[in-house]
Structures are given as structure tokens and as C-alpha cells.
Design goal:
mainly beta; 123 residues
Length: 123
């Protein structure tokens, strides 16, 4: 099984304008180990919810920046020269073209804000 087959990545936009998005409710119903759902669109960006445990593969986004915000759990973002640890209510931005991977040693819920054209698995 390839790395990308281990992920449940849903690019469909789940919520439209003026709809309530209950992150905690969605998070409680996720059974996948690595789940990613596009929640909504904001201008030329999307907001995605990740509910994850384990590690993602190394990748980069050549044309888009990516913002991570931890809701619950612990997320480690590995860069080529260092690792950043995020706890609840902390965020971090990866600029376009920077190779990275995310790891969650415990079940973690995070929000990601990125350009609509981003492929979550990288370019």
C-alpha cells in the first residue's frame, strides 16, 4: 500500500456560506487514522480539518503556502533543518516550496488554511 492510500482525503467542500461548522462533532465521528476534509472556501483559499495520528510523507507545495492550527492533540512539523511542535491553540505557516512532513504522536485535530489549488499530498 502506498503512503497516499493510507490517507482519507476529501476535497469536496462540505459546508457553504452561512452554515455552522461544528469541528468537535465532525472530529468525534472520524474513524480513519489520517483524515482530511475540506470544510469551506474563503476567497481563494480553503479551510480543511485534519484528524490524524501517525506521520504523513515528506512533500512540498511549489506554489502555495500552508497554515496549520492545532485544535486538540499535538502536531510535529518536520522541516529539513528542524522540527516544530504545536499544541492546542498554536499555529505555524509553511511557505511555498519548503519540504516538510507532519507527525502526530497522539490523535490530533488541526485546521489547515491553504490555497484552493493545493494538493494535500504535495506536488
Amino acid at each position: 500500500m502506498s503512503d497516499q492510500e493510507k490517507y482519507s482525503i476529501n476535497l469536496d467542500v462540505k459546508y457553504g456560506f452561512l452554515e455552522l461548522i461544528d469541528i468537535d462533532r465532525i472530529r468525534r465521528h472520524v474513524t480513519d487514522t489520517w483524515f482530511n476534509q475540506t470544510l469551506c472556501e474563503v476567497n481563494d483559499c480553503v479551510v480543511r480539518l485534519g484528524v490524524v495520528e501517525g506521520e504523513f510523507h515528506w512533500h512540498e507545495h511549489k506554489n502555495e503556502d500552508e497554515f496549520f492550527y492545532v485544535v486538540d492533540g499535538k502536531l510535529i512539523i518536520d522541516l529539513e533543518d528542524r522540527s516544530i511542535e504545536l499544541r492546542p491553540n498554536q499555529g505555524f505557516t509553511i511557505p511555498r516550496g519548503v519540504r516538510h512532513r507532519t507527525r502526530a504522536p497522539v490523535r490530533t485535530a488541526m485546521l489547515m488554511i491553504e490555497g484552493r489549488s493545493v494538493k494535500p499530498t504535495g506536488d
